[in-house]
Description:
The protein is mainly alpha-helical. The chain contains 12 helices and no strands.
Amino acid sequence: xxxxxxxxxxxxxxxxxxxxxxxxxxxxxxxxxxxxxxxxxxxxxxxxxxxxxxxxxxxxxxxxxxxxxxxxxxxxxxxxxxxxxxxxxxxxxxxxxxxxxxxxxxxxxxxxxxxxxxxxxxxxxxxxxxxxxxxxxxxxxxxxxxxxxxxxxxxxxxxxxxxxxxxxxxxxxxxxxxxxxxxxxxxxxxxxxxxxxxxxxxxxxxxxxxxxxxxxxxxxxxxxxxxxxxxxxxxxxxxxxxxxxxxxxxxxxxxxxxxxxxxxxxxxxxxxxxxxxxxxxxxxxxxxxxxxxxxxxxxxxxxxxxxxxxxxxxxxxxxxxxxxx
Length: 325
């Protein structure tokens, strides 16, 4: 019963978090637009948005949402909390339609609904929270060979993306920025869960911060959050919010579920039917986000192909072909 009660608490906190985070995307985007008028855009490497009050209002809203999300990880497994980010996709896409005039077609609405259905499916079959009595147990899970290999692979990909892909494809391929955010985010969530568990146990009377492990996880958390923030700002500044939000959600959720499964072994206590149901729910979410992306420009004036998934060479060739006509 205690596990079920904790899962409900995590569920309520995760839903509240999604509302705040979905709103923060819109507020920050308006701040980035204002800052780009008077200074260097974030997508071009500028930081003029730091002087924009609207951007800071979005940051405060996002911090509130992340705070609720942070506490949710202390009560529920990542496989339950993370997929509920689909609600922030729906909220930000609808607000972008009305506030930022970023067109959301009816099929986009259907895509949002599909994302929601997939999230509910995952929630209904999510495992109960693992009973942890000390942060030392979390450290032991984090230093097992499987998770150490995952961490090494993620760090290697981050170095490759930041130092090779960003200078060449950052401004034309959204997946470069989002990939950095998502890979970093998967490790950030593991650090968040570790610190949240340490705080939960400390408030219960068992001080965990007398050990070095919570402080290590805190440093990792802060460092990776800053890295995520920088590249998420670049993605929001350069690409359509209604596309950034769902693609970020899909990639972030995929890597987070993978990391959580490796580290906390949350599927060990479930049968095949429950695991398959969760996977089907996630595939449903993927279908919804794909539909939302493919229909983002329907109903508006004709536009040239989006550079989101297009290489610079393809774009140059397209311009050359048009010049022939």
